[in-house]
Batch of 2 targets.
Target 1
Amino acid sequence: MRTSYREALRQALHEALSDDPRVFLMGEDVGRYGGAYAVSKGFYDEFGPERIRDTPLSELGFVGAGIGAALGGMRPIVEVMTVNFSLLALDQIVNAAAVLRHMSGGQFSVPLVIRMATGAGRQLAAQHSHSLENWYAHIPGIRVLAPATVGDARGMLAPALADPDPVVIFEHAQLYNLEGELPADWRCGIRRAAVRRPGSQVTVVTYGGCLPKAMAAAERLAAEGIEAEVIDLRVLRPLDMETVMDSVRKTHRVLVVDEGWKSGSLAGEILARIAEDGFYDLDAPPRRLCSVEVPTPYARHLEEAALPQAEQIAAAVREMLNA
Amino acid sequence: MARSADAKSLPRRLLADMLRIRRLEEKCAELYGAGKIRGFLHLYIGEEACAVGVLHALTMDDNIAATYREHGHALVRGVPMEAIMAEMFGKATGCCGGRGGSMHLFDAAARFYGGNAIVGGSLPLAAGLALADKMQGRKRITACFFGDGAVAEGVFHETMNLAALWRLPVLFCCENNFYGMGTALHRAHAQTDLCAKAAAYPMATARVDGMDVLAVHTAAVQAAARVREDSRPFFLEMQTYRFRAHSMFDPDLYRDKAEIAAWKQRDPLDTFPARLKAEGKLTDEELLVLERAAEAEVAAAVEAAEAAPLAPVADLLKDVYTPEAGP
């Protein structure tokens, strides 16, 4: 069945709210307004203001309250409007949610799900567009997910809610309108990366909003006779390096595409692990394609120039194969 | 620990718990000097009447969230002294297996949600615990302890608003010891009337002498009853004073010796037994029995902590994530 990423997220939330009375959705404008990205439109009327809970503009307060409610036996889903706003809540996520289990010697788990929009591409400039997934992926104690397909948008929420530990889900803002085929069995785990397109000559590792770009690049390359394998990380912490290494051992070439900035990026972490564990499997220097190190500009042509694009991915692969 | 129908024995139980905290912490300071306890150690000495008065006003079904100066709260709440001492020794038998230390005591059985070393960090957690209780139809309340320093944090104001807006059953227990680490209240707050800040959200407030354990207890009983009945937050300010420095690293250069001496005149460990004796409710012999019991409990806790094993390094990664269910 064809559906949109937004609709898939919506179905997943609807199912969670319908199936488990402990689940509630909380965040800025999730209720009456219907969600900043219209994911929860209509839920307020259906589930009521207690379970579709509009919050004041208090990211630190309501994320902290979500942690407390999780400790108290609920299964909160806290929506933060964008990753940039989540920085206001970073203290509670890093200093409480991620560490309470460990600090308490395993006595208290925090079964909390935090959803937030991330990424650029909508001309929202430098306070609404950044990709800071790597900040969260740095932190032991939380799981970090990046659904990039309608299947994952539909399937990842249930296992995230079932997980006894805090899970942060990044929804790339450019994906909400993405249309795709929802598999008949969309159920999925949140432990493994996925091979989205098999190929033999080069591995392209990516996640989130860059996945459609990598797939488009692979399509173009295929027309030229180049078979790229595209890996969607799906889970940014803990990383599934087994799937990545299996591919690298087959193709012997790897390009990582990451909308984050190169310095201190997830792309850097992945290449470091490949270098540590698979250096002698490589036939060419590994490469990265990341965002240009500039705060995301407003003007469309500048924003496009700042982000990894499909043509750049294809060009990087060609260079690697011709080298 | 829980409120008892036996009002007659209450003063003696309050005194006994204050003594237990005082003797425990005096020993902690000594053990810190001896290198047995490391990290940060923040002593509650002088402020005991606050934790004791409030916690005796609650039921064991209520939730507690506290600060990094929480040895007393944990102890009065029922965390065994041995488990507290072993935690400070970093031993496997500590209440958190040596992962938390002095600033992070937790106990699920006591509904004791920490030990939080981010100033103000426990405030939204308490609001969330109360939200969970309210949504699940429980009558439980959550008591959240924090200091005057936390009142300057943004999260204090966010939490006050959420608690008042959503009518959350939280008893906010502000231990105002007039210093945020080394900075005096009047040097950090334009409005030094802390109740006025809470009242703005709005919520009911009360200010009580935090050196008078009976006054604290009475105020806390009334406040807790209101929170429970109305399902609304309450802000209880207890004015108190820490007799020791902020932490073991603090040379305490920012307070007048005369100010410290004046507050020490009001030491609840002196004034309360004196009052009970004057009222004929306590004899010297009875006080001695309480003193000896506290000392014996401390000695046993130290002995057990000394003898306890360290957690194996092989378990280093334990409790970062919950183990996967199933085979």
Note: DSSP finds twelve helices and seven strands in chain B.
Target 2
Amino acid sequence: MQIIKNEFKNSADFVVKEVEIAGTAAFLCFYSTMIDAEAVNKQLRLLEDRVDKGANGWGSSASTSAEAFHKDKLVTAICEGSAVLIFPKSNLMLEIKAIKVPERSPDEPVNEQVVRGMHQGFVENFSSNIGLIRNKMKRPDLVVESFAMERTVSKLNIVYLADQAAPEVVQEVRERLSNMPNKEFYSSGQLEDYIEDRILSPFPQFLTTERPDRVTYNLLEGKVAIFTDSSPTTLLGPVNLFSFYESPDDYTSRVLVGSFYRLVRLLAFFLAILLPAFYISVMSFHSEILPVELTTQVKSSVKDIPYPPIFEALLLELFIELIREASIRLPQPIGQTVAIVGGIVIGDAIVSAGLASNQMVIVVAMTAIAGFVVPSPELNMVIRMLRFPFMILAATFGFLGMLIGTLILFVHLLNLSSLNQPYLSPVIPFDPTRFKDVFFRVPYFRPDRQQPFFRLGGKKAK
Amino acid sequence: MKKLMICLVLCIPFLAGCWDNLSFRDLQVVTLIGIEGEKGNVTIHFSFPSQTDDQIEYLIAKAQGYSFADAKNEINVRTSEVIDISQLEVLLISEETAESNLIEYMDNLYRTPRNRLSSKVALIRGDMESFMTQTNPQGIGKNVPDFITHLLQTSDDYSMSTSHDIQKVGTLLFSEGKDLALPVLQIGEESGHPEIAGTALFKGKSATGTVLTTSQSKIMSIMEHNPGKFLRGTYEVEVDGKKDLITIEYVSGKKDWKIEGDKVRMSYDIDVEIEEFPIGPVLEKNRIEILEKQLSEQVTANMQDLLSVLQEAGSDPLGLGRTVRAFHPDLWKRGDWNETFSELDIKADAKIKIRRTGILN
């Protein structure tokens, strides 16, 4: 008994009790903070019954399993939250799974809300999460594969549709997960670092989501989902740039509306990256392209600004970033106050104080809003970061600089891959069957609309 | 290698780029330019908006130089900011200046890549200064360039005159088969602000001094087969022994030019709509035929008049030369087209058809 206690460093919530089961002495050990005592008692009673009846395989049931005593296994089982019954005489141990950890309800995630459709989100428990998915997709080819980690108990699970996902992609995920050098992690962001194709690229190579419906339709497209045991965030791969611009809203709204908003979002991508750079170029190099009617207005507002447009833009952009960061960190009621104060300062005071021009405020505001349109939070941050290099290029070289910047950006995107699949697919390499899906939300009336997203041959699914 | 790359990247901002920076803050946008004088002594008037206490005032500056570019550079001695003509709205050239080679004054505008090629060009009659400042504040407001731009646009819409931007002027100046025709502005005696005076004819690269009236310009746009949005004309007709005025609007037309040797026969089928006809119903007692006959005669006479004016000036704004060049090489090769044009035997013939009578019959 003391040996077992020592193994768990005499932790106060670790309990070892001597019990008698059907006339045999046994030790019952568990973490009192992790088990459901009621359920354990029930199991013990059932166990006695079965032993009394002399049933064969008395130790096996849906929540119990008996095996030979082994110290490592005991430790793992107890850490996972099971109660373990040890029979010293027969050298057997019986694991009773009756975990009771506080779990929240599957509410809609705050950062990925939709107007219409499912209002559910993942929780911190993998079994509940996979339950949510199986509930949406009742098919036997939904496969779960688990990968045990060495230094932490939590597991990694990959989920895919065997009939839909490309085998080479699944194999690639398996290999990367088993080749992880340090099998210890705390967040899915850390996991992403280990299995990404290129860590230093600003673009995310996995789609993260907390929405079961998003995972479901991505699985149907042949992607692989990676769940960590302790986080509601799921990684989906392989992705292309356009996956980040799809929102579940597209598929719950009407065809024309969905297509229109998808196009608007794609336009917002360019707007969010290039608009401030464009304004800076015009102001410092190419004023001839301003319409004549605008010149007097623009001139009167930039006339008294003491520094070049690039500083004006950097000042306002940094201010917007500060407001954004502050309102995320602060509790909601205070966050709103920050937004209001920021709005007043940016919108009005900064112009009347002569620190920035009206036009710059409009440009920065439009850019900020265009940046928030992206449905995926991680791409959103990338886009907001990318506009700074573009602004600097615009301030040094004007349109030429923007052109160079855009070229570099596209070369990078072309080189990028997600799980060895091209990042700009299906535009480059061009795949006509999937191409229209990028820009429009294609109607569902054809029964064969499911297309394996990452089989490059473009074979249609059954 | 890596260090070298980093150094190179860090050096990029110090390269050419920043020195080409032309900040909009330091530019003075000029929206109206007037050119007068002759080669060797060119005067340019600049009009530019300037903000004083939330009000926009149009200031005038004037510079003299040997050539256009010289005068343009000279102006910077008396303005606080760099004069920038890339936002030019209207280019005014005095009639006398236009009678010499026009390209001498416009070459600079084409050569600089920043310049706007969609600015309007007009000739002016009279004192240049009176066009630059507006003495009559009730008339048109302070924004003279804007007023002139819209004036030229409107007169083009109503086919009163032509309206060309700098780009089109360049095309026509160098075109051998078609001559340039530019609107002429003058200060109206009653209104006191710029008005359309007519259309100046060009021969080659310089103005001939002949100016068409606005009604001649209308006929010209029909003959050129390039009318504006609206083209209306008033004629006197005699119906049932009564004389009255009729106003017709051009609807559509067809032109047919037949060229045989020295003889050019231009026939036009023109569909019109009646705008005003106080005598009353048109669709009665063969009135249509009577009207059509009288109108056709009058329009034909107008065309014939215009042709004689054009031939006398030796200017071909109709583009007859282009057709000749394409289909009648013998005639084209006879010599300088402007002279050939003057000597041709050209007859015009218009057939008017009344297609619509408005919502009255």
Note: The two ends of chain B are 89 Å apart (CA to CA).
